[in-house]
């Protein structure tokens, strides 16, 4: 269990670094991002990214449980 947490932490840090680098290169929003701008602020929700992450995590966890 400890090794899994370390690997998951490293993978999450790598993903964060990739997203940070992509933001600096000009990729601010992913396709499928819901943006609602109102008088008091802006709400941004990446729907497509959530769906893709859900599918990938489902596949990885199903393979890990075998």
The H/E string reads: HEEH
Report the oligomer. Answer: single chain
Question: Major beta sheet, specifics?
Answer: 2 strands, antiparallel
| Molecular shape | extended
- Any low-confidence stretches, pLDDT <50, length ≥5? none
The share of residues in helices is 55-70%
What topology, given as strand order, has the largest sheet? 1-2
Question: How many distinct domains?
Answer: 2
Task: Report the average pLDDT across residues.
Answer: 83
Explain the layout of strands and helices.
Elements: H1 2-24, E1 33-37, E2 42-46, H2 47-65
Antiparallel strand pairs: 1-2
Q: Could you walk me through the main structural features you see in this protein, from its secondary elements to its overall organization?
A:
Strand 1 (33-37) and strand 2 form a beta hairpin. The chain has 2 domains: 1-29; 31-66. With 66 residues, it is α+β, with helices and mostly antiparallel strands. Strands 1-2 form a two-stranded antiparallel ribbon. Helices cover 64% and strands 15% of the residues. It has 2 helices and 2 strands; from the N terminus they run H-E-E-H.
Quick recap of the structure?
It contains two helices and two strands, in the order H-E-E-H.
Give a quick set of tags describing it.
66 residues; extended; two-stranded antiparallel sheet; 64% helix; single chain; 2 strands; 15% strand; alpha+beta; 2 helices
